[in-house]
Design a protein that fits this description.
The protein is of the alpha+beta class and 79 residues long. It contains 1 helix and 3 strands; from the N terminus they run βββα.
Length: 79
């Protein structure tokens, strides 16, 4: 049985303004953007979807605990 893969949760951050953006979209416009780590999330091995619709876990151990207890769906969210 396949399990969720635990990965770093990352996002774009413009430190001067505090604005954030997803790394799964286009590069944000303007200067001063960098990719930063903000916790831990999971990737579904069946669908490739990242995250489960909640804030990232603070520690890798918390995300691993979730991945050990919950089986990933073979269909994507919204399918």
């Amino acid at each position: 049985m396949a399990k969720f893969e635990v990965i770093e949760s990352r996002h774009w951050l413009q430190e001067s303004t505090g604005r954030t953006a997803s790394i799964y979209g286009a590069l944000p416009a303007g200067e001063g953007w960098e990719i930063v780590q903000r916790g831990w999330t999971v990737r579904n091995p069946h669908t490739g979807q990242v995250g489960i619709g909640r804030q990232p876990w603070a520690t890798k151990a918390e995300a691993e605990d979730y991945a050990a207890k919950v089986a990933p769906l073979k269909i994507g969210y919204g399918d």
